Amino acid sequence: MRATFKVRREKGNVAITFGLMLAVVFGFMGLSLDLAQTYEMKTELQNAADAAALAGAKALNGTLVGINAAVSNAKSAASSNKFKYSTPVTLQDANISFGDDPDTTNWKTVAQAQSSPAGLLFIKVDTGSKTQDIVNFMKVAAVARGDGSTTAPTTYGSAVAGRFSLGISPIAVCALDPANKYGKVSHSAAGIPDELSEFGYRRGLTYDLVNLNPLGASANKYLLNPVDIPTGASDNNCNPSNGSTTTALPYICSGTASIITTLPGYVFANTGFQSSLNAEFNSRFLDPKTNKASCTTPPDANIREYTANKTGQGFPSQWMTPAPANQGVSLVQSGNGQNKITLPFTPPAASASNWGVLWSYSPAVQWAATPPSGGYTPYTTPDWSKLYPSTAAPQVQALPAYPTSTTFSDPPSPYNQSSGSQFFSQGSGSRDRRVLNVALADCSTYQSNGKCSTLKIMGIGRFFMPVQANIPSNLYVEFAGLVPDNELTTDIKLYH
After folding, report:
1. Burial class for 262, CB neighbours closer than 10 Å (0-12, 13-18, 19+)
2. What angle do CA 43, 104, 262 make, to 5 degrees?
3. I need a labelling partner for 31 at 20 to 30 A (CA). Which of 50, 307, 442, 446 fits?
4. Burial code of 65-78, b = ≥16 C-beta within 10 A, e = fewer?
């Protein structure tokens, strides 16, 4: 009897254990199916977000019309996608935001973007949290537990897409030598290699864009239409108001405009360079001389000014001698007085005071027929007196204080220092905010098409602002080389 009772008791234990294990297995099966369905819905919502972001980004051009079209396109693209196999994805304005960078933390609502659309070339789409129904046997399990309910998991899709184009300030100046993208300045008599010039500009020299006027006194300092893109020299299909100073201001502030995609290319031009532009140019400095107005873009990471005729710590007198009496190179009219450039056009160097601040951002480089894969070979400071001679003694020479190392990969320069007080002063923005990407025009191609005049752009020059602008008197910038053509793109890129 005892043996029989023991067997029956063990059989009961097995049944209980099996039942418990079955419940666990049943639960894991339900969880697996639930997670699979949630993952599937996540994929559906992500696909909808991707499609909506790409559709919206194609319409963005920095205008109110572009913002409105982007919102409409995004909603339409999302609704053509479904989740849970049959439910269309519906977007509200709250699911859409805009920014000037794919990694920005300052995304703007649709309403904010509509009121200030300039520079907003990226769209962020969030499908919003969607609930995944729990499979039926999970609900049965919940009832069996006695709580009678389940917590439904949620998931969503999110994507960022944008017109990742080069940031171009909506201004143009004349290419000094438009026929020679990679020219050379001979220094054979001085015993050093030839120097590179790019469309007539020499790296490391300071130029005054306001007075960069080889076409004569009647030449214009061009503001560009930052919105409309001409198809050719005779195109007059532009909105004239988009070429106004008022329209250009936020683009000058941000330093962005998606108007040049291929080189050579054409732009719509306008005249301007008014004193009202100072606030937008000088927003790159921590303490601008003029009110920053509506420009809210942060200043440069290094906001120390490199003023030519000041002495003391941090100024060019610390790394060059003699310090030039004038901030920038003095350019004079070249040609026959009939708006014809005699080329190559090079700045005069009658005395050391004619040279601007040298190498505050980057050094001069040696000539090569095409850009070397490893970058151009820079000169060293012992070459200064040969690179920048003058008829009046003494010649411009470098002092030992010029930086010889930097934490950045760029050649050493005062601006590239990231600490210390001699050449660096901490800003709250990002590096290279003081770099202006300026269109270099073949000014002989200027064509007036009513209110939609065009210019042929040969290249994009990088110009560094060592000091704040004082328009209409001056806008001093140091040439830092051409922007590579392959950086000019309007490809729509997707980010997650």
Report:
1. exposed
2. 90
3. 50
4. ebbebbbebbbebb
